[in-house]
Amino acid sequence: MSILQEAIAFENAKMSNMSTSDRVVASREAKRLILAMNEIYKTTKDTQLMDAMKRLTAKKKKIEKRLHGRPSE
Questions:
Q1: In which residue ranges of the chain is pLDDT below 70?
Q2: Distance CA 58, CA 36 (A)
């Protein structure tokens, strides 16, 4: 399976009812996919890859926001 196909599968996966450990795994998987896609993007400059990286980054931020919680004052 190519990196782009893995990214699309990750993007379409349901993220509701996840445990904390599931969120950690999902965050690490998103990071792995983003970094792998970035290495390919450096050579090809494919805009489709950049768009996919942006979507994955947004999803990763949502997961991490839920993982770390809201900052208390």
A1: 1, 73
A2: 17
